[in-house]
Structure to design on (335 residues):
């Protein structure tokens, strides 16, 4: 079967795809549309760009079961192909088809960079809180104990009221010296350790810990210290709620409970404090940069890794031809 000369392609605004409007309709440019351009060049077809008007973003089912956004347009047959960086999801296989994968999509989240620790608190950083508590208890008990032992020895020496034998006195003196010497040794080790570590903290001002992984995000969201925003029109939150991971369920349920609205994937907008935004790792690198030059903190782990494919309507005629060209493009390193 010959490939159709004209096709309809759906796209949405993101950092990977910029959309402008002319008299002839929407015009798309960017990384995502480049793949469609390569397909059009290889298969000799022309295309027009269409944009969802229902505000559904990437596409998710409504309460009544109908799909909106990009997925809805493909499900209704209003367009033929999609030009978005989208994962292969089992939920959408009933309403549309996927091409052979051309890349991978790792979903993670980004937050604002942690702030620098206050200069007034830097002097407390060399030791952890538990150790500081132990040191305070030690300094409260040991000096008082030594004082009482020393006072007791002076009284016994001055008034000669002790009825113990000389050997017992010597044993007591030896125990006192061991105890006193151990205390002096502990003080010396603590002082040297603190002095050695504090210099490094004073040289480079440390930063606050921040939220760096899913477990920390789950605890922060559960304690209402953070908000999590998923990509607009994605099924990420629903997948989290049904996940076997307790941390993912916490995040998904909190998103549903508080009604945190979705964001445009890779929109490049400023991330607010105490806010985590879902996004593909590669897109976050494009928008915000890579560490250590990134303007945000990108999480160490991910919600999952999916294959990225071109979405097409269910009854599209030429899936085989598209798969063949995508394999050639991928193997040739053109995309």
């Amino acid at each position: 079967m010959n490939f159709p000369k004209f096709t309809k392609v759906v796209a949405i605004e993101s950092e990977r795809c910029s959309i402008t409007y002319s008299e002839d309709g929407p015009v798309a440019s960017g990384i995502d549309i480049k793949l469609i351009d390569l397909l059009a060049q290889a298969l000799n077809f022309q295309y027009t760009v269409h944009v969802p008007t229902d505000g559904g973003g990437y596409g998710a089912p409504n309460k009544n079961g109908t799909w909106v956004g990009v997925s809805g347009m493909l499900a209704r047959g209003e367009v033929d192909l999609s030009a978005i960086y989208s994962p292969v999801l089992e939920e959408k296989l009933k309403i549309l088809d996927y091409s052979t994968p051309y890349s991978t999509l790792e979903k993670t989240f980004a937050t604002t960079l942690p702030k620098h620790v206050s200069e007034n608190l830097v002097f407390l950083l060399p030791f952890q809180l538990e150790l500081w508590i132990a040191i305070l208890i030690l300094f409260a008990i040991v000096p008082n104990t030594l004082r009482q032992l020393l006072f007791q020895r002076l009284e016994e020496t001055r008034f000669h009221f002790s009825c113990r034998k000389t050997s017992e006195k010597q044993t007591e003196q030896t125990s006192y010296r061991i105890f006193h010497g151990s205390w002096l040794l502990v003080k010396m080790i603590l002082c040297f350790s603190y002095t050695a570590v504090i210099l490094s903290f004073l040289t480079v001002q440390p930063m606050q810990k921040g939220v760096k992984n899913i477990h920390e995000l789950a605890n922060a969201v559960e304690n209402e210290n953070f908000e999590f925003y998923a990509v607009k029109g994605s099924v990420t939150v629903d997948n989290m709620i049904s996940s076997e991971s307790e941390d993912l369920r916490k995040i998904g349920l909190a998103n549903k409970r508080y009604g945190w609205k979705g964001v445009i994937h890779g929109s490049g907008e400023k991330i607010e404090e105490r806010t985590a935004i879902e996004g593909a790792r590669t897109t976050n690198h494009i928008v915000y940069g890579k560490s250590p030059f990134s303007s945000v903190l990108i999480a160490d782990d991910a919600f999952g890794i999916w294959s990225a494919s071109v979405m097409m309507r269910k009854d599209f005629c030429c899936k085989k031809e598209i798969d063949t060209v995508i394999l050639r493009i991928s193997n040739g390193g053109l995309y």
Notes: The first strand starts at residue 6 and ends at 10. The chain has nine helices and 13 strands. Residues 158-168 have pLDDT under 50 and may be disordered.
